[in-house]
Amino acid sequence: MTDAYDPAREGAKMSFAEDMSYGDYLSLDPILGAQNCQSDAHDEMLFIIQHQTSELWMRLALHELSTARDLLAAGQLSAVFKMLTRVSRIFDQLNNAWDVLRTMTPSEYTAFRDDLGASSGFQSHQYRLIEFILGNRNTAMLKVHEHRPELHHMLQQELGTPSLYHVVLRRLASQLGLSFPDDTFRMDQPHAASDLVMDAWAQIYQAPHDNWQFYELAEKLVDLEDYFRRWRFNHVTTVERIIGFKEGTGGTSGVKYLRRMLEVELFPELWNVRGRL
Ligand code: HEM
Ligand SMILES: N[C@@H](CC(=O)c1ccccc1NC=O)C(=O)O
Question: Which helix (H) or strand (E) element contains residue 197?
């Protein structure tokens, strides 16, 4: 008689022939069967899993951002704060994940880089959707998705919807009894900094207690952009460390292109207003 622990004796359910198990619920078979390495290189598994997990976190970020936008339009700010905080935490998670990928050296990456063909993160439709929902909109980015009509359609639909920041600005204007001109809300290009919008944020920051929820909302957005910028910075630094200034597999200039993307400002007035306070 062994005294090894027997979970069945304590009532743990041990048979799942008829019931939904852990793996069933989480669809682990398709997920854990989807690491389709193109080479025999040891590090390709790391590369694939790093991207797949990033895409899963991006999926959650999109889920939170689109609900946050709906709730914002309905004026439910407290729930929006929770969701925006969660998205910042997701970016923090993605930022920390670079430490795992950074263990791959140029020699190890070179062993399978050619097998990636022309594929590149540049073609991540979820990353593009996050950018679009936050307001960094560029119609030129749609073309690489033409071969996948359902993804192309999703991106196009997003471009036809006001961005999260647009919805924030609509509420801000109504809170302060202002009206921003129509060209503040261009849906098919990046949001351009506006003095009127900066004046409105200045009002909020100069007297936080008068409109505390908008003050809190502004800081949640700054937080989110701060984490997003760190993601871009970690990406470009990792890329330089691994491929230097080589052209990207996606056909861009690589690090040069990614450095240019560091200049993107999602909520420019929220950064500009700081110099006015
Ligand atoms: C060895 C690691 C990596 C290298 C060498 C690398 C390299 C590059 C390069 C050169 C580009 C520019 C586009 C091109 O011409 O290919 C790019 C874009 C991109 N990469 Fe990576 N990358 C790496 C890891 C990652 C990871 C882990 C993610 C996470 C999902 C990612 C997501 C993206 C995205 C979203 C873009 C588009 C950025 C934009 O358009 O602003 N990359 N990457
Ligand atoms: N653009 C990268 C390749 C790359 O990183 C990549 C390739 C396929 C799927 C995701 C990727 N990640 C980010 O771009 C390169 O030029 O080496």
Answer: helix 195-206
Check if the beta carbon of residue 161 is closer than 8 Å to that of residue 236: no
238 close to ligand 1 (CB < 6 Angstrom): yes
- Is 109 annotated as a binding-site member? yes
Ligand 2 atom nearest to 109, measured from its CA:
17
The values of phi and psi at residue 254, to 5°, are 75, -125
Cβ within 8 Å of residue 220, ≥6 positions away: 80, 81, 84, 85, 88
Query: For the chain, which domains are there?
Result: 39-276 (1.20.58.480)
For a ligand 1 pocket test, name from 58, 235, 266 the mutation site with the most ligand atoms within 8 angstroms of its C-beta: 235
Which residue CA neighbors atom 34 of ligand 1 most closely? Answer: 121
Q: Which residues of the chain have pLDDT under 50?
A: none
Atom of ligand 1 nearest to the CA of 97: 27
ipTM above 0.95, yes or no: yes
**What pLDDT, on a 0 to 100 scale, did the predictor assign at position 1?**
59
Atom of ligand 2 nearest to the CA of 247: 16
Q: Report the candidate in 246, 239, 251, 249 with the shortest Cα–Cα distance to residue 113.
A: 249
Instruction: Answer whether 228 contacts ligand 1 (Cβ < 6 A).
Output: no
How many other CB atoms sit within 10 Å of the CB of residue 266? 21
Q: Residue 47 C-alpha to ligand 2 middle, in angstroms? A: 9
3-state secondary structure of 21: coil
- How far apart are the C-alpha atoms of 184 and 187, rounded to whole Å? 9
> Is residue 228 marked as binding?
no
pLDDT of residue 188: 87
Instruction: Output phi, psi for 223, to 5 deg.
Output: -60, -50
pLDDT tens per residue across span 38-78: 999 999 999 999 999 999 999 999 999 999 999 999 999 99
